[in-house]
Amino acid sequence: MISLYGYLGKRVKIIDDNGKEWHGYVDLYTSDLDNETDGIAEESIVIKTDGEDDEIRYIEFMQHEVKSIEVEK
After folding, report:
1. Of 70, 51, 57, which is closest to residue 4 (Cα–Cα)?
2. d(CA 57, CA 6)
3. Cα distances (angstroms) measured from residue 45 to each of 5, 10, 53, 67
4. Residue-wise pLDDT tens digits, 5-54
């Protein structure tokens, strides 16, 4: 599984588990220890997306929802 910790504060491109592409800055990281639900613990990140028409959205991705992630320049 992809570790999300190293992406905090960086501009990224994410392909989610549905194949949709997202671009934005990683604004928040939550460790698996702080993100446990129903006995399942996994990391998550929140990205500040590049919205259409200057719309800014914040989207949280759980670790299992990230198919791939890479730092953009």
Report:
1. 70
2. 22
3. 8, 11, 24, 14
4. 999 999 999 999 999 999 999 999 999 989 877 778 999 999 999 776 66
